[in-house]
Amino acid sequence: MHTAQTQFGPIKIIPGENRGRFPFCTSIFIDDDVKTIIDPGAGLKPLQELKDKIDIVVNTHYHFDHIAYNHLFERAKVFVNDKEAPCFRNRKNIGSLLGMEEVYGKKWVDGWLKRISDPHTEQSPYSPQNNHFWWLSTSKVDETYAWGDILDFGKTRMQVIGTPGHSLGFSCMYFPDYGIVYVADIDLTDFGPWYGGTDGDIDLFIKSCKNLEALDAKFFITGHEKGILGKQEFKAGLKTFLEKIDERDEKILSALKIPHTLEELTDKGLVYGKKFHVDEWLYMWEHIMIKKHVQRLVKNQKVLPGKDHTYILP
Ligand SMILES: [Zn+2]
What we know:
Oligomer: single chain
Helix content: 25-40%
Structural class: alpha+beta
Number of helices: 12
Bound molecules: zinc ion
Shape: globular
CATH architecture of the largest domain: 4-Layer Sandwich
CATH class of the largest domain: Alpha Beta
Strand content: 15-25%
């Protein structure tokens, strides 16, 4: 059941530019006593008219596409989940969570901070790694929320559902009075689940999806591409989406008929494709995704550590 409805009581869905494809996302405007925007990543055009109206900005998590236009709402208070708020208090924490420190080291993070502080830095080919909005939109956090909290905007109540796995504090926003939930990056895109940061976790991601499926919601609003889905449509899409995890496992198992190190597996480009590796962030995410799969396969005894940092089949 697809719906043409884009408003549920005071809750208005703002589609992102380019169908909400990364680095844009669907934003949610709560046109209530306390005017609130969730994940202002829809783009300048769709958000500009709300610029001076918004009292509160809520971010479901710290990823670029969900915070990009925080800076547009100068007089608004910014609410971020308590687990990721440190990213807004000291941007070096973004380096630890997103993977930069793990893959390239602390010095690289310092260089990155310099690059994003300068609006004239050259952009990267495939990721928003050098976008100055990183700098502008992480400049403040006014309040934190926690999983399980209920925020009240007047007529609208919003319950914060903890859905870790995609990022450390990733939260989905449930509106029980209207039977809708904003599922943000549990987005059912063809790419599949994303857990490419140091803070990503495959098993937690799966568990979070199951928890969302169990919600008594009629409509699920994704952060990218798909838009507003009925419950059955969401359930069916979720199944295909999670199957991507098994497909990635299969690709790795197939490659490991010959022993490979993590670096060699990364170089194969099994998740993003090799051509994207010219962008440091895409390489970084490829590397971390592969590493998380291999570690999970080892834990489940489908892969064994071999000689010289290689991995092999049992
Ligand atoms: Zn995200």
